[in-house]
């Protein structure tokens, strides 16, 4: 499985020191990790001499307060990836429907459970926007609908009206709905867009969130899942004990309470995303309108097999998108970084 953010590989193969390379291949917030999170990790170091809280009750309490739901509606995981695989293990669908292009872990996790994959191809001519008229006809054929909101690698959100239609339709068809909201934190109205408030009215709804991207802590590994209480109980029985370590739990509590960092990030992203999009368009690239902290970029004369090593030789690493269904070597994905890093990339692009 190909991923971005492989810093160890970039350093080993290209000889760059970590401080000299700019990683646009991983969709991480360049403002993080926040000071509050680093401080919490330092203060929690002595806790590594003890086993971690098996359920992460301090984090569950923080999540319950944030979402105004009981603690037993949440499950912590060793990153969102663990929770995706855990949900598939619980549901064991015969057939899943998923968007294309999309994060490949959904298909990998489903195939491990023997599921057939139904891909819903998003239209490039429509900016890869997920539309109800494409998704609704597939529901009768699938046990599980998997959506990312915003989608990766396109950065497009499912329109709220479409989400509402899908919620109602899946109730009628009895289709499970798994929604990955790993990048929804990057939207200022994320709490209004989230489906977490619907978990008690839709008992076949599972929502997964990550703290990795927004707070830039991929090495810590922590995410959470929201679902009806009886589903959380069953998932916990399937989960490996002590899945989330003490440092990750401390980091999560600090992150969830750092409103200042959240506001600073949203202000930065609104400015830098617009700047980077405009600069790319002025250079002849087409950029998918993104709601997230990354951009899917296309130009017909681009060949990623040539472009990737050219950029890597300058310490710049972008995401080769050929592993995403429906995308070829004329596409690449870039995370939105600091102004200095963004300008460095713009200077290097053909």
UniProtKB/TrEMBL annotation:
Its EC number is 4.1.1.81. It is an enzyme of class 4 (lyase). InterPro entries: Aminotransferase_I/II_large, CobD, NHTrfase_class1_PyrdxlP-BS, PyrdxlP-dep_Trfase, PyrdxlP-dep_Trfase_major, PyrdxlP-dep_Trfase_small. It holds the Pfam family Aminotran_1_2. GO terms for biological process: cobalamin biosynthetic process. Pathway: Cofactor biosynthesis; adenosylcobalamin biosynthesis. Residues 20-348 form the Aminotransferase class I/classII large domain. Keywords: Cobalamin biosynthesis, Lyase, Pyridoxal phosphate. GO terms for molecular function: pyridoxal phosphate binding; threonine-phosphate decarboxylase activity. Its cofactor is pyridoxal 5'-phosphate. It catalyses: O-phospho-L-threonine + H(+) = (R)-1-aminopropan-2-yl phosphate + CO2. Decarboxylates L-threonine-O-3-phosphate to yield (R)-1-amino-2-propanol O-2-phosphate, the precursor for the linkage between the nucleotide loop and the corrin ring in cobalamin. This is threonine-phosphate decarboxylase. It comes from Effusibacillus lacus.
